[in-house]
Design goal:
The chain contains 5 helices and 4 strands. By secondary structure, it is an alpha/beta fold. α3 links the parallel β1 and β2. It is globular, with a radius of gyration of 19 Å. The chain starts with 7 loop residues before the first helix and ends in a 23-residue tail after the last helix. The mean pLDDT is about 90.
């Protein structure tokens, strides 16, 4: 597994072996993207990245369309470097009926709506309540994406 933001020990604790991006691209048979889009990872999978991948690799992107350079993906599909792709995101959403990825029989594209089930909506609501309660007790909420603001968070001093 490759994640520049997670310590190797945490990756191992989750049952995966930490590797760098170059190793992942060269050795993985399946690449599955699960990341927020940032300035650093826009077009993470570029022409250069696809050229380094194992021939016949499968790609899954359920994160953000802009993580993948679609022109590079199309070229990799045409060459056979990528054997297939499963996507619920594309660069320019919503996807139009003439989108070039739709012509590939080995590409599955579905709507990016997995988060909108009754169960996930219930869990999101519970999570919001739990985090608000933590802040009101003066505690840091779980899963803070910008921890650098914590020392400046006045709300945490209410507790």
């Amino acid at each position: 597994a490759y994640d520049p933001n997670v310590p190797p020990e945490a990756v191992r604790a989750a049952g995966a072996e930490p590797v760098d991006l170059e190793t992942l691209l060269a050795e993985a048979d399946i690449i599955s993207l699960h990341a927020a889009l940032t300035g650093e990872n826009h077009h993470l999978l570029s022409h250069k990245a696809f050229a380094r991948m194992t021939p016949g690799v499968l790609l899954v992107n359920t994160a953000r369309g802009e993580l993948v350079d679609e022109g590079a993906l199309i070229a990799a599909l045409e060459s056979g470097r990528v054997a297939g792709a499963a996507l619920d995101v594309v660069e320019g959403e919503p996807i139009g009926p003439d989108h070039p990825l739709l012509r590939f029989p080995n590409v599955l594209i579905v709507p990016h709506i997995a988060a909108y089930t009754r169960e996930t909506l219930r869990r999101m609501g519970e999570k919001v309540i739990s985090d608000v309660e933590r802040v009101l007790r003066g505690e840091v909420p779980d899963d803070v994406v910008n921890p650098e603001v914590i020392p400046h968070a006045r709300a945490l001093r209410w507790g």
